[in-house]
Design a protein that fits this description.
- This protein has 432 residues and is an alpha+beta fold.
- The protein contains 10 helices and 19 strands.
- The protein has helices spanning 78-85, 98-113, 123-129, 137-145, 164-183, 207-222, 235-250, 257-271, 317-332, 406-422; strands at 3-7, 16-22, 29-30, 35-40, 45-49, 54-59, 66-68, 72-77, 225-233, 277-280, 285-288, 294-296, 298-300, 303-305, 308-309, 346-350, 369-373, 377-382, 387-400.
- The chain binds oxidized coenzyme A.
Length: 432
C-alpha cells in the first residue's frame, strides 16, 4: 500500500478558504480530476480535484475548517486503486442507466473546467460566483446557460448546496408549469379567480377602457419612464386669472389654470425640440415635430380620452380656454371622432380640479413627454428673510429617458414655469 497525502492546491491568489463540503468518503475510489471537496472563499466557491486515480484512505478535514494552499486534506492509496481496477471489466449498463452515467461523467468534467481560479473566469462568471448560494462552478455555469437564477433554486445538499439534480428539478418544474399553463388555455397561473373568494359583479370592460389598457401597457413596457417633480410659484398668475375669470364667465368662458399651462407648454416646446419629438425604435430615428399640438386627458363616464388642441402656439389663452370647454363637453358626450384624438406632440394630464399633490403620468406614445398637473395650494415659502404665503402649483413631468436626458427635462420644466409666470404680462386674447 502506497499512501500519499494530498494537499490543498494553489488557491489562485486567495490566502485562506473554508471547506464547504467533502465530496468523497473513506474507501471511495476516485478518478484523476474528480472533485473531492468544495472550498469557498468570500468571493468564490471552487472544487478541489484529485490529481490521480486513488482510493480514499483517510479524510483529514471537515466542513467549516479553514485551509490554505498546502494544507493536508486527504490520505490516498494510488496502488490500491490500481490493484482494484486490474482486470475489472467495464460494468455492463442496464437499460435506462446509460443517460444517467453520461450525465454523471459530464458532471465531473464540467465541474472541473472552472475550478479554483477566479482570475480565469469571465466577468459574469465571477459575478455569479460571488453569490452566497453554495454550488460548484459547473453547476453555476449550467444554471447560467439555462437562464436559471441560482439564487432562486432550493439546494438539496449540505448547507443548501445546489447540485446538478436541483437544476434539473427546477427545469422540469418550469416545463411542467408551462404545460399546465397551455392546458389551461394560456391563462396566467398567478391570476386568481376573484369569484372564488366572495360575491362579485361582472362588468364589461368598455371600448375606451380596453384601448387605454392596451396603450398604457405598451407604454409601460416600452418607454423608459422617469418623472421629475417641481413646484411653480403662480401667485401673481393666479391673481391675474381671478381678476379676469368672472368677466369671462359672463361671456361663457371658463378660465382655468389649465389654459395657461397649455399655452406655456407650447412656448417652452419651441425652445426644447427634443421634448417635442417622437422616437422610432425600429428605424432608430427621432422625429422632431415642428408643430405644437397639445393633447389633454379628459375624465369621462366611459373612461379616459385624450383629445388634441392643434397649433397651440397660434392660439390665445382665451382660445385655449374655449376649446378646453367645448372639446371636454364633446368628449363627455362621446362625440369625439378618432381624428380629434390623434397627432399630439405632447400631453397634459390635469388632476388639479380634483386634488392630490404629485403623480407619475404615463407617456402617451409616440410622444416623448407628458406633464401632470396637481392642485395648487397656498404655502409658506421662505424668501430669504421671512416666510411668505405663495400659491404653489405641483407639476410632474414624465419623459422617455431613451430620448430625453434628465438635465434637458429639468431645463424644459424650468423654462415652462418661466413661460407660465410670464403669461400674467400677456394679453389673454393674443397668441403671443
Ligand atoms: N389647482 C386648484 N384648482 C384647480 C386646478 C388646480 N391645479 N385646476 C383646476 N382647478 C379648479 C378649476 O379652477 C375649477 O374651479 P371652479 O369650479 O371654481 O371654476 C375646478 O377646479 C374644476 O376644474 P376642471 O377640472 O373642470 O377644469 P380644468 O380646465 O382644470 O380641467 C379637464 C379640464 C377636462 C382636464 C378636467 O375636467 C379633467 O377631466 N381632468 C381629469 C384628467 C384626468 O383624468 N387625468 C388623469 C389621467 S391618468 O394619467
Amino acid at each position: 500500500m502506497a499512501k500519499e497525502t494530498m494537499n490543498i492546491p494553489d488557491l489562485g491568489g486567495v490566502d485562506e478558504v473554508t471547506v464547504l463540503e467533502i465530496l468523497v468518503a473513506v474507501g471511495d475510489k476516485v478518478e484523476a480530476d474528480q472533485a473531492v471537496m468544495s472550498l469557498e472563499s468570500e468571493k468564490a466557491s471552487m472544487d478541489v480535484p484529485c490529481e490521480k486515480a486513488a482510493t480514499v484512505v483517510e479524510i483529514l478535514l471537515k466542513p467549516g475548517d479553514r485551509v490554505k494552499e498546502g494544507t493536508a486534506c486527504l490520505v490516498l492509496d494510488a496502488e490500491q486503486s490500481k490493484e482494484s481496477n486490474k482486470g475489472v471489466k467495464e460494468p455492463k449498463q442496464e437499460a435506462g442507466q446509460n443517460d444517467t452515467a453520461v450525465v454523471k461523467d459530464n458532471r465531473k468534467s464540467e465541474e472541473n473546467i472552472l475550478i479554483a481560479d477566479p482570475n480565469r473566469l469571465t466577468k459574469t462568471e465571477n459575478e455569479d460566483l460571488k453569490s452566497q448560494v453554495p454550488a460548484s462552478p459547473g453547476v453555476r455555469k449550467l444554471a447560467r446557460t439555462l437562464g436559471i437564477d441560482i439564487q432562486a433554486v432550493v439546494g438539496s445538499g449540505q448547507y443548501g448546496r445546489v447540485s446538478f439534480d436541483d437544476i434539473a428539478a427546477t427545469v422540469l418544474a418550469r416545463m411542467q408549469s408551462i404545460k399546465e399553463g397551455a392546458a389551461a388555455g394560456g391563462k396566467r397561473q398567478t391570476w386568481q379567480d376573484p369569484t372564488k373568494f366572495g360575491p362579485c359583479q361582472e362588468k364589461e370592460f368598455g371600448k375606451i377602457k380596453k384601448a387605454t389598457a392596451k396603450a398604457m401597457s405598451q407604454s409601460w413596457s416600452n418607454v423608459v419612464h422617469v418623472t421629475q417633480f417641481e413646484k411653480a410659484d403662480i401667485t401673481e398668475l393666479e391673481a391675474y386669472r381671478c381678476l379676469h375669470k368672472d368677466a369671462l364667465k359672463a361671456q361663457s368662458v371658463r378660465l382655468t389654470m389649465l389654459a395657461f399651462i397649455i399655452k406655456a407648454m407650447s412656448q417652452a416646446l419651441v425652445k426644447h425640440p427634443h421634448i417635442n419629438s417622437s422616437y422610432d425604435p425600429e428605424g432608430q430615428k427621432l422625429w422632431i415635430k415642428e408643430y405644437y399640438h397639445i393633447g389633454f386627458a379628459v375624465d369621462t363616464p366611459n373612461g379616459l380620452v385624450v383629445p388634441v388642441i392643434r397649433n397651440v402656439e397660434q392660439c390665445s389663452v382665451i382660445d385655449i380656454a374655449k376649446m378646453l370647454a367645448s372639446i371636454s363637453e364633446k368628449a363627455r358626450e362621446s362625440k369625439l371622432s378618432p381624428k380629434d384624438m390623434v397627432g399630439a406632440s405632447m400631453t397634459v394630464s390635469s388632476l388639479g380640479g380634483i386634488g392630490g399633490e404629485y403623480f407619475t403620468p404615463i407617456v402617451n406614445q409616440p410622444q416623448s413627454a407628458i406633464l401632470g398637473v396637481s392642485r395648487n395650494r397656498q404655502q409658506a415659502v421662505w424668501d430669504g428673510k421671512s416666510f411668505q404665503p405663495r400659491m404653489m402649483l405641483p407639476l410632474s413631468l414624465s419623459y422617455d429617458h431613451r430620448v430625453i436626458d434628465g438635465a434637458e427635462a429639468m431645463r424644459f420644466l424650468k423654462d415652462m414655469i418661466e413661460c407660465l409666470q410670464g403669461l400674467k404680462d400677456q394679453s389673454l386674447d393674443k397668441s403671443s
